[in-house]
Write a structure and sequence with these properties.
The longest helix is centred in the middle third of the chain and has 22 residues. The strands form ten sheets. Strands 17, 18, 22, 23, 24, 25, 28, 29, 30 and 31 form a ten-stranded mixed β-sheet that branches. A six-stranded antiparallel β-sheet has the order 11-10-13-8-16-19. Strand 26 and strand 27 form a beta hairpin. Helix 5 packs across helix 7, helix 9 runs antiparallel to helix 10 and helix 11 runs antiparallel to helix 12. With 865 residues, it is of the alpha+beta class. It is built from 14 helices and 42 strands. Bound molecules: beta-D-glucopyranose (BGC). Beta-D-glucopyranose binds next to helix 3.
């Protein structure tokens, strides 16, 4: 019998091993699902004709195994294979398919390129849109090409072409980062794009986040600079080992192209009449007004290779409904609120202008554009007058389910307008479904809100003039996010920016990257629940991936945050000063005062202070600093004690007698002893009941209120809260046809009107953080040790559900559970990946220890359990 061969190895979190930013990339591989547990492995490295092997290494590890070979040099390409020994059979498996690790430019000195862009005068002061540039250059190759790489980034956003062919399928590259500190570049294998003779390279440029308008109340332009430029280095290796380097420099040329304006918020205007397919081919500049470029500045030590998957189109949707209106325009419904843009195929007279408008919802049968605030979200295309012209805007992105099309020549036929969905192309990791279609749809809505808002960085919302990396939103959502998609690379990158934007005193900004913004966001102040992202997300990352390196990288920022709050709180250990957002957007807060939560914001602030101190202690332990771990543990205990003396009354109630208060007190471990915890749980359940099983929490209480009820024995109340369909509740939007999670419980009010507050989005993931509870408690799948090396199966059926299932791609393979209740029997199927163990806690039976493999169990249930 041949042993199952492992899958090809991967390096760090790179999707293809190309352009690695380290000389020591860690290596991972997967065993086939049917495989037994790994006992040992051997890695083989082939570089410059030499093969080396590690020899047999007796270890189960196959996730981020340290690079055991000589360090990679810049650009070096090494072929790596693995074989394994498992407990299935005595022999070794076959070798995996080979994979290549290739280093990026590891030393800033290796960049000869400089940023270049159009040399014409631009109005940098007014708010007038500037016409984007295209840049190009031709060159002659006189020797055959054996390999070619393009390293590219921009001040702004770019799309490169070589000899008339689009390079890569990434969009909005290089994404958003704290550009002054870190500008990501991408590496492309362009070997097949080049040939001996004349060649041409060019790039479309857009303003993007670098100099486009960002932020609310009109926003700010030129946040990072006034230039729009490409920074690229094309390195071509010939058959004789020599290299030709074509780097952006003064030899390039620039001209405006067919794009008239391009803005992330406002959309794009493209005049097809000014288009020519040849502009990036040799000779393509003929007749055009190409002029020398101007060079700009960039500190090359700020260039970093992009570590994870890029933003790209991941799905294409066709309208589920199309209506021709009296004025000749079309109203399209894509059946799903999504983030992306429309692509059109159109034939009509030259000069016809097709206008595409976008909105998340309809009011009175028309697009509701009010919630967009000052984001125009309109794309326009002027036809060349040819058959089947195809167009899609390049450097904009919209949040929409509905669109109108005006000016369309003739009939709009099926397939001529499609919606292309864009987000960071993270590998899918988690699934969930259950017997209640509304709950399953709620879960899908969470997934769609994650897709729409994980676009390079985690944003709050995708449609209005905001789209910022609000720290609090992703802080509460991170555990859910890490279950649904492998978003570790994106969160790691964003946390690096959090570290860069952290103020010297430890203050973590409200949103990262920071952009100019009006009060109360400027001057930046520390806010509970938001700044705690720095301390809590690294631990969530570690729990999901088992990668202690992530903790190490972000530890200093986490500790600085807790140290800052420690000094603000003083010896009393109560954080009860300053501006706080409290339980932001709880249903009791007035629509235009979302921070005026029912729950005392200082109670929440002290609760988070304790919780973050506890997490720093956990991190210190993992990082091998027990003394520091002890210090932060003691600090957390002292804060909890202070919390009790200040906020816990002798009656056992909290000073803010609200759902959120009890939720934080219970879940953050702030109460002393079982009696106090069960008292708090009882009161919470009572509050929930008194509230007619309607949710009473905002961003802070919502992710944990069901957990607080569950761990205190009020599972039934948790289910009733979840299954509620009246407003406010999770399912109310679902009954209203929502296909994403709304920002407010009543973004659309029960009377059918839009919430009139200026801040009303229909695609905000924060309130969807309950999905984490759905995975762990309804389906019953949770990590019991970092990286799911130990799994806890603990399904807790309720709410009339008759079945549920969840799965998660752990670093060691797929873990899954599904259960079904029929008559008086519950049948459960659980799968544990190779080299992992699990404990199954099924209702009414003693815990069962499991090794890897699949186990089916049937248990009898009491009528009322
Ligand atoms: C954002 C939120 C964010 C909040 C902070 C809003 O405008 O959309 O999601 O966390 O401000 O107060």
């Amino acid at each position: 019998m041949t042993l199952p061969t492992p899958g090809p190895v991967t390096f760090e979190r790179s999707p293809n091993g190309l352009g690695l930013g380290t000389a020591h990339p860690r290596i991972s591989w997967r065993l086939p699902e049917s495989s037994g547990s790994q006992l040992a492995y051997e890695l083989e490295f082939q570089r410059a004709g030499l093969t080396t092997v590690t020899g047999r290494v007796a270890a189960a590890g196959r996730h981020l195994v340290p690079w055991p070979a000589a360090p990679l040099a810049s650009r070096e390409r090494v072929r790596v294979r693995v074989r394994v020994w498992t407990d299935d059979e005595p022999g070794a498996s076959g070798w995996s398919e080979p994979a290549w690790a290739e280093a990026a430019l590891l030393d800033p000195e290796e960049w000869s390129a400089v940023p270049v862009g159009g040399a014409w005068d631009e109005d940098t002061d007014s708010s007038a849109e500037r016409r984007p540039a295209r840049i190009r250059r031709e060159f002659v190759l006189d020797k055959p090409v054996v390999a070619a790489r393009l390293y590219a980034t921009a001040h702004g956003v770019y799309e490169a072409e070589i000899n008339g062919r689009r390079v890569g399928d990434d969009a909005l590259s290089p994404g958003w980062s704290v550009y002054g500190r870190r500008l990501q570049y991408l590496t492309y294998d362009v070997t097949s794009y080049l040939a001996v003779g004349r060649n041409a390279i060019g790039a479309w440029l857009g303003d993007g986040w670098y100099r486009g308008r960002l932020g609310f109340h009109g926003g700010t332009r030129n946040v990072y600079g006034t230039d729009q430029s490409l920074l690229a280095q094309l390195e071509i290796t010939h058959d004789d080992g020599t290299m030709t380097v074509i780097a952006t420099d003064s030899s390039w040329q620039a001209a405006v192209g067919p794009v008239i304006t391009s803005s992330l918020y406002d959309g794009e205007v493209h005049d097809g009449r000014a288009d020519s397919a040849d502009w990036s081919r040799p000779g393509g500049a003929d007749g055009g007004k190409w002029a020398p470029v101007v060079s700009h500045e960039r500190d090359m030590s700020t260039l970093v290779p992009a570590e994870g998957p890029p933003i790209r189109c991941t799905a294409v949707l066709t309208p589920v409904h199309s209506l021709r209106r009296d004025d000749g325009s079309y109203l399209l419904d894509f059946g799903q609120n999504l983030v992306g843009r429309l692509a059109i195929t159109v034939s009509g007279p030259r000069g016809t202008r097709v206008v595409l408008r976008h909105a998340e919802v309809l009011v009175n049968g028309d697009l509701a554009t009010g919630p967009l605030r000052q984001a125009r979200a309109v794309d326009e295309y002027v036809l060349r007058g040819e058959e089947n012209e195809q167009w899609e805007p390049r450097f904009t992105i919209h949040g929409f389910r509905y669109a109108t099309v005006t000016g369309w020549p003739g009939e709009l036929t099926e397939g001529s307008v499609v919606a292309r969905v864009y987000h960071t192309d993270m590998p899918l990791a988690g699934t969930f479904e259950c017997s209640d279609p509304l709950v399953t749809r709620l879960h899908e809505n969470v997934r769609w809100s994650m897709r729409g808002n994980f676009v390079g960085i985690p944003t709050d919302c995708p449609a209005r003039d905001e789209r910022l990396g609000w720290t609090g939103d992703v802080q509460v959502f991170a555990p859910t996010a890490l279950f649904l998609y492998d978003c570790a690379a994106l969160l790691d990158s964003w946390l690096t920016d959090v570290g860069h934007e952290q103020l010297p005193d430890g203050t973590v900004p409200w949103f990262v990257p920071v952009i100019p913004s009006p009060p109360p966001w400027t001057p930046i102040r520390p806010g509970a629940g938001w700044g705690d992202a720095a301390a809590l997300i690294p631990v969530a990352l570690y729990q999901a991936t088992g990668d202690a390196e992530l903790l190490r990288r972000h530890y200093a920022a986490a500790r600085a945050w807790v140290d800052l709050i420690t000094s603000l709180a003083g010896p009393g250990r109560l954080w009860n000063t300053g501006f706080q957002l409290g339980d932001w957007l709880d249903p009791a807060a007035p629509a235009d005062e979302p921070a005026a939560s029912e729950t005392d914001p200082y109670l929440i602030a002290t609760a988070y202070f304790a919780w973050s101190a506890r997490h720093v202690s956990i991190a210190a332990d993992v990082l091998g600093d027990p003394a520091e771990a002890e210090r932060y543990r003691e600090l957390a205990d002292e804060i909890a004690k202070a919390f009790r003396s200040r906020y816990l009354l002798s009656s056992g109630r909290l000073t803010s007698d609200t759902q959120a208060s009890y939720a934080v007190a219970i879940v953050f471990g702030l109460l002393d002893g079982e009696a106090a915890v069960s008292h708090a749980g009882r009161r919470l359940a009572e509050l929930v009941r008194e509230n007619g099983h309607h949710i009473g929490t905002g961003f802070i209480g919502t992710p944990i209120v069901c957990d607080a009820l569950t761990v205190t024995g009020h599972l039934d109340a948790a289910y009733r809260l979840l299954m509620q369909t009246e407003c406010p509740s999770w399912l109310y939007p679902v009954t209203q046809g929502a296909t994403t999670i709304w920002e407010r419980w009543d973004s659309l009010r029960p009377n059918g009107t839009l919430n009139p507050a200026g801040m009303t989005s229909f695609n905000h993931f924060a309130l969807g953080s309950v999905a984490d509870w759905m995975h762990r408690v309804i389906a019953g799948l949770a990590p019991a040790a970092p990286g799911y090396r130990k799994i806890e199966f603990r399904p807790q059926p309720g709410g009339g559900l008759t079945s549920a299932a969840a799965s998660h791609e752990t670093p060691y393979g797929r873990a899954a559970i599904s259960w079904e209740i029929a008559d008086e029997e519950m049948s459960v199927t659980m799968t544990v990946p190779p080299n992992c163990t699990a404990t199954a806690h099924l209702p009414g039976v003693p815990p069962v220890e499991m090794g890897s493999g699949t186990l089916r169990m049937r248990i009898r249930r009491n009528r009322d359990s």
